[in-house]
């Protein structure tokens, strides 16, 4: 009898606690979903049934007439922002309230966690001001010869393979190897050849960072559910061997350059300037930005650990996003012959004018249609499909009585906006022409709805580089080759995405076939 009573009491306590925890949003007058025991609304995410992008997109599609929806991922309350105008306020107008992301940072225990994507507050502001001059068009243009050389390696590799009779490729891996060569060269100052050496150590280490294994899944889940617990549980953002590898690569490069007085046009050199003088030298013809001039902390120097963390984030944020963009572009062009031909015609027209120096940086900017292809790819496949921010104070939503409480995590479903039929007509149709006369596409809604690189002061710092490497990869491939799908069944229908990846990754590998034009 006593046992039954205790059991009933325990059930009642669990039930009441459940009800209490799942009333966090309704008590604040915010519409919420219908959470179920333990999983809350996040069952599909926690059980790895849906990718993060699709999970938030589906909530958006069902609730887009609300401005904001309260959701529970297990017992963690988060908000999904479904109104483009409110998104704009959060990312741009009221940025000072929302400048941080809920990410785990502990620079003492885990120095690599202290990178630009993760850190917040004044520290982020100071670092962003220091790093922004490293991504100006002048600096990226100066890196162009390095990137162009990697392009040549890709071109020679494809030529050689086709000569040998190999014409079917799993492009996800090949494009990752191409981008690793570029980013490791500009971020770490190291010339690798992962294109010709698929098992190169650099490739193996970078694959480990994005490997959908249990540990990486757990890291993503704890980051989502309880970022402040992450380091208390003695977790680190990287496996030890990958971390040791990054540390030793950067340390050796810095020591080599300082001892030999060697310099090169790459991010590593600019990071070394930040370590030794606290600011990046301005090139001839380039002006200090207003932000830089008015900033009080332009002179404090970065430590070695801080530059290691930044080199690391340039590497990870750069290679996976750019190679996925390339992969989706290739996929859509392979199944749209007429668009592929237009790209080829434009590339032929521009490349025909090249002189003895080959294709120049300025010539690439003439590839306007190709740019629309990239913009449309990133509309249909925003590689980071959700943007996330935290509120650093209570925030009253304009024209409403709703208050977003201090500390709330806000999730902005970019994939949802980009594939909303009320914003983009026939959103699954691949139509680069949407972008011919507009940088936002032909979307109808007001406010922010095209955000492949995020928006506001905390948008992607590497956008120019990401677009440039994608353009180089595509123009090289289509200047010489035709591309088609190997599996004709993929001609129609849509790609499914991997459930335990934060970035939008196809759930299955697939091959494409090239032939000489
Ligand atoms: C096509 C390629 C790329 C895409 C689609 C992309 C997308 C994004 C997005 C959506 C964000 C978040 C923005 C927000 O929350 O508002 C972001 C942030 C960031 N990206 Fe990129 N990115 C790309 C390439 C790159 C490259 C090449 C680099 C560096 C070499 C880079 C470095 C970063 C960094 C450091 C941040 C954090 C910025 C901050 O918090 O201040 N990205 N990126």
Summarize this structure as a short list of keywords or feature phrases.
binds protoporphyrin IX containing FE; alpha+beta; 517 residues; 9 strands; 2 domains; Cytochrome p450; three-stranded antiparallel sheet; Uridine Diphospho-n-acetylenolpyruvylglucosamine Reductase, domain 2; four-stranded mixed sheet
Textual characterization of the structure:
By secondary structure, this protein is an alpha+beta fold. The protein folds into two domains: 1-103 and 385-418, Uridine Diphospho-n-acetylenolpyruvylglucosamine Reductase, domain 2 (2-Layer Sandwich); 114-384 and 419-516, Cytochrome p450 (Orthogonal Bundle), CATH 1.10.630. The protein is built from 19 helices and nine strands. It has helices at 2-21, 43-46, 52-63, 84-93, 121-131, 137-163, 171-188, 201-210, 214-225, 227-230, 240-260, 267-276, 290-293, 304-334, 337-351, 361-364, 368-380, 414-418, 463-480; strands at 68-73, 76-81, 168-169, 387-390, 395-396, 403-404, 409-412, 481-485, 512-516. A hairpin with a 2-residue loop joins strand 1 and strand 2. The protein is globular. The mean pLDDT is 90. The site of protoporphyrin IX containing FE (HEM) has 26 residues, from helix 14 and helix 19. Its cofactor is heme.
Brief sketch in words of this structure:
The chain is of the alpha+beta class and 517 residues long.
What is the secondary structure topology, with strand pairs?
Elements: H1 2-21, H2 43-46, H3 52-63, E1 68-73, E2 76-81, H4 84-93, H5 121-131, H6 137-163, E3 168-169, H7 171-188, H8 201-210, H9 214-225, H10 227-230, H11 240-260, H12 267-276, H13 290-293, H14 304-334, H15 337-351, H16 361-364, H17 368-380, E4 387-390, E5 395-396, E6 403-404, E7 409-412, H18 414-418, H19 463-480, E8 481-485, E9 512-516
Parallel strand pairs: 2-7
Antiparallel strand pairs: 1-2, 3-9, 4-7, 5-6, 8-9
Helix pairs in contact: 6-7, 6-19, 7-14, 11-14, 12-14, 14-17, 14-19, 15-17
Family: Belongs to the cytochrome P450 family.
Protein name: CLUMA_CG016217, isoform A
Membrane topology: Peripheral membrane protein
């Amino acid at each position: 009898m006593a046992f039954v009573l205790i059991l009933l009491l325990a059930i009642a306590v669990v039930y009441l606690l459940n009800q209490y925890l799942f009333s966090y949003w309704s008590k604040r007058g915010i519409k919420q979903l219908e959470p179920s025991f333990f999983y809350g609304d996040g069952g599909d995410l926690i059980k790895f049934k849906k990718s993060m992008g699709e999970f938030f997109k589906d909530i958006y599609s069902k609730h887009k007439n609300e401005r904001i929806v309260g959701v529970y991922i297990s017992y963690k309350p988060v908000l999904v922002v479904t109104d483009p105008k409110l998104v704009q306020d959060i990312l741009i107008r009221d940025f000072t309230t929302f400048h941080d992301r809920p990410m785990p940072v502990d620079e003492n225990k885990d120095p690599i966690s202290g990178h630009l994507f993760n850190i917040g507050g004044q520290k982020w502001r100071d670092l962003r001001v220091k790093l922004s001059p490293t991504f100006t068009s002048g600096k990226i243009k100066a890196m162009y010869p390095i990137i162009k050389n990697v392009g040549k390696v890709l071109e020679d590799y494809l030529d050689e393979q086709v000569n040998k009779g190999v014409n079917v490729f799993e492009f996800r891996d090949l494009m990752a190897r191409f981008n690793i060569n570029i980013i490791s060269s500009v971020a770490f100052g190291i010339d690798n050849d992962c294109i010709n050496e698929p098992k190169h150590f650099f490739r193996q280490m970078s694959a480990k960072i994005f490997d959908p294994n249990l540990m990486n899944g757990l890291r993503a889940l704890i980051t989502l559910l309880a970022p402040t617990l992450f380091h208390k549980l003695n977790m680190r953002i990287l496996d030890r061997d990958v971390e040791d590898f990054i540390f030793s690569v950067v340390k050796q490069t810095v020591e080599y350059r300082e001892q030999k007085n060697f310099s090169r046009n790459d991010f590593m050199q600019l990071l070394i300037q930040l370590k030794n003088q606290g600011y990046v030298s301005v090139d001839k013809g380039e002006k200090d930005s207003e932000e830089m001039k008015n900033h009080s902390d332009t002179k404090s120097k970065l430590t070695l650990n801080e530059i290691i963390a930044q080199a690391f984030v340039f590497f990870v944020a750069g290679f996976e996003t750019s190679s996925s963009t390339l992969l989706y572009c290739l996929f859509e062009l392979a199944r749209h012959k007429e668009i592929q031909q237009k790209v080829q015609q434009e590339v032929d027209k521009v490349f025909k004018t090249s002189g003895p120096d080959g294709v120049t940086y300025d010539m690439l900017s003439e590839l306007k249609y190709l740019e629309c292809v990239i913009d449309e790819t990133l509309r249909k496949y925003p590689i980071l499909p959700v943007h996330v921010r935290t509120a650093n104070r209570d925030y009253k939503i304009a024209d409403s009585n709703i208050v977003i409480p201090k500390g709330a995590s806000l999730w902005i479903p970019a994939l949802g906006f980009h594939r909303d039929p009320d914003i983009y007509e026939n959103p699954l149709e691949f139509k680069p022409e949407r972008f011919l006369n507009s940088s936002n596409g032909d979307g109808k809604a007001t406010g922010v709805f095209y955000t492949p690189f995020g928006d506001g002061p905390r948008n992607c710092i590497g956008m120019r580089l990401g677009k440039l490497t994608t353009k180089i990869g595509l123009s090289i491939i289509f200047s010489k080759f035709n591309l088609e799908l190997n599996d004709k069944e993929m001609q129609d229908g849509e790609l499914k995405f991997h459930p335990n990846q934060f970035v939008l990754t196809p759930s299955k590998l697939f091959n494409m076939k090239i032939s000489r034009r």
